[in-house]
Amino acid sequence: MEIKPLNDPKKIVQLLAEVAQIPHEKSRLRLAQEAALVGTNVLNALRAQDIPLYTMSDKMEKFYQDNDAFLFEITMWNASTIKGRLRDFIASSLKKFKKHEADIFCFGDGLGFDSTYFAKLGHKVKYYDPSLLSQKFSKHLFNENNVQVKQLTSMEDISPASLDVLICLDVLEHVPDPIGLVQKFHGWLKPDGLLVVSAPFWAINPTLGTHLQKNRIYSGNMKNLYSHNGFKAIECSFLWDPIVFQKNNSRIETTTSVQMKIAINQLLLFFLRRRGVISFLLNNITLKKIFGKREVPVSWREYLK
């Protein structure tokens, strides 16, 4: 499904320039840097402000709220075919579990690309992200795609047991209390609600400097993070695709196929978070496969040269 203006590199560069309040050519060059190595803008900004990597602090929290580096990183990630496949996997799962015209909350949705995608599928979508610049960008995005998305300014705006689906992609690895947040998710969902999560806790690398080192303990540890907080897995794919959870009181049973895929994923993620030569090699190979090679759309290549 087409999400404007991802199909037009000139327009996306201009929108980034307007939101970040920088010249068009500087915006193009910064996006080109991101195309060469995703995470470059965030790493450069963290170093420029002398913010320690892999740990939460007051400076890091402020960085999330008002730095423009994430605009370029998130744009490139959402333009990649990998991210497109993730969205398609989620859409297929919602259809499988009969979540039609669902009340969906895209939590920490950055620039709003996921919210736009699911709104275009006919769902009733709520959006939240703490970044002021991301909020500004998302307004332009929703208008460009002619979709109705409710933008929330606070997590307190969500009523208990009000959501059919909560989508949380690439967020939990950044927050200081993942368990507390998952417990909030449980409270916001209806009894048969779905939680869709991807969280690369294991991915610790300078270009992923906002991932918290202390959260690596949750890599492959579904029991402490999800099972103990009232969720059971009902759908997944291998490694990078999100896992779909439902509350424990639901009638949907976890199939043998899903159980096997989860077991394999947990084993691999266990090794990815360990120390040692094998783990180091696995970690770097996986990082290069997933983060280092996010295919640049063909229509972008000439323009970003």
Taking the sheet with the most strands, its summary is:
7 strands, mixed
Distance between the termini: 26 Å
| Strand order in the largest sheet | 3-2-1-4-5-7-6
- The helix tally amounts to 13
Radius of gyration equals: 19 Å
Count of the domains: 1
Number of strands: 7
Beta-strand level of the residues, as a percent range? Answer: 5-15%
* SSE-based structural type: alpha/beta
- Report the CATH C-level class: Alpha Beta
Mean pLDDT: 88
CATH topology: Rossmann fold
Provide the helix percentage: 40-55%
Instruction: Note poorly predicted spans.
Output: 276-286
Shape: globular
Q: What's the CATH architecture name?
A: 3-Layer(aba) Sandwich
Q: What order do the SSEs take from the amino end to the carboxyl end, as H and E?
A: HHHHHHEHEHEEHEHEEHHH
CATH superfamily: Vaccinia Virus protein VP39
Question: What does the model show?
Answer:
With 305 residues, this protein is an alpha/beta fold. It has a single domain, classed as Vaccinia Virus protein VP39 (Rossmann fold, 3-Layer(aba) Sandwich). The chain has helices at residues 9-20, 24-36, 40-48, 58-66, 69-79, 81-96, 113-120, 132-144, 178-188, 222-225, 256-273, 277-290, 298-301, and strands at 103-107, 124-128, 149-151, 163-169, 189-198, 231-235, 243-247. The chain has a seven-stranded mixed sheet. α9 (178-188) links the parallel β4 and β5 (189-198).
